[in-house]
Amino acid sequence: MTENNTEKLTLSERRRRIFSEDFKRKKVQEIETGQSRVCDICKQYQVSKTNVHRWISKFGSMRSKKERLIVETQSDTIQNIELKKRVAELERIVGQKQIIIDFQEKMIDLAEEEYGIDIKKKFERRPLSTSQKNETNTPIR
Which of 8, 44, 127, 135 is the most exposed place for a label (fewest CB within 10 A)? Predict the structure, then answer.
């Protein structure tokens, strides 16, 4: 490494550097004990913050484990059961309403066939032209 910390390495020089695992472990230990900060390591060795955080996740004593323990209180469990019951009840009500709607639509279709009239009216709405309205209401001068 260089003696002068203010001297910047070129991109190609930085890419070629490989730090040993022992070096990485020591730097992570320094960070965890509070002797150094991530930004200090980055500046001192001209390493990106991303790389230092990778070292921490790989070699740190606080690294996350693969297993997770989820603790639910009894009230959470009871609330989940009640919410599931409520969802089931609402789904049942929606199903009943859909049956009623289907029945009413079938009855309308049968009545249209029986009586020959259009019960389901399709309204055609034409917008009023404002120019026609103004022409009839404005006095001629």
Answer: 127
- Separation between Cα atoms, residue 45 and residue 55, nearest integer Å: 14
Residues 63-78 as b or e (16 or more Cβ within 10 Å = b):
eeeeeeeeeeeeeeee
Q: How far is Cα of residue 102 from the mean position of the Cα atoms in its chain?
A: 37
User: pLDDT tens digits for 55-86?
Assistant: 888 888 765 555 666 777 888 889 999 999 99
Spatial CB neighbours of 1, under 8 Å, sequence gap ≥ 6: 45
State pLDDT tens for residues 95-127. 999 999 999 999 999 998 998 888 877 655 566
Can you tell me the mean pLDDT for 28-54?
Answer: 89
Between CA 66 and CA 54 the distance in angstroms is: 16
CA 116 – CA 66 distance, rounded (Å):
70
